[in-house]
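Let's practice the habit of predicting before peeking. Look at the sequence and jot down your guess about where helices and strands might fall. Then scroll down.
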Amino acid sequence: MNLVLIGYRGTGKTAIGRRLAERLGLRYVGLDAEICNRAGKPIPAIVEESGWEMFRDLESEVTLAAAGEDDCLLDTGGGVILRGENVKGLRQNAIVFWLTATVPEIVQRIGGDDQRPSLTGTRSFTDEVEDVLAERKPKYAAAADHVVDTSRLSLEEAVTTIADTFTREQRATAGQKDAS
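Done guessing? Here is the structure:
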């Protein structure tokens, strides 16, 4: 069984994911890094040269390949939920955690991030975060089994919360399989 982290950038997916994978003995897979490895270039260059649609196609290929693995922690990009095929693939063998944070917290955390191009190209950074979150919120909610607000949690508190929930659900799932 996999553990999947979804959510907007700046919610802690990578920092939490690395520590969580180590604690649970899962193989950590950062899907954005996998996309960059496959393309041989950083995400801004992919988008600039080929556009968002090409990036999303590559994201889907990488996501579906990783979703077919087992005993992995998948740290997804913020837009992975924009395609239903990605969500369906991720949910087949996983417990999905949606990491959230307040807009001010996200803005503070990612204000200097230059590894992602603007998603709207026209708004202030804070307005962009608000707009994109409002658009994606229903999709994150539909994809998630659990929601964890990282705004007021330390890294260790978030890791412990998710690890405990994942372990409990993993045991329950194993128990259901044993009973059938």
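How did you do? Residues 64 and 89 are 6 Å apart (CA to CA).
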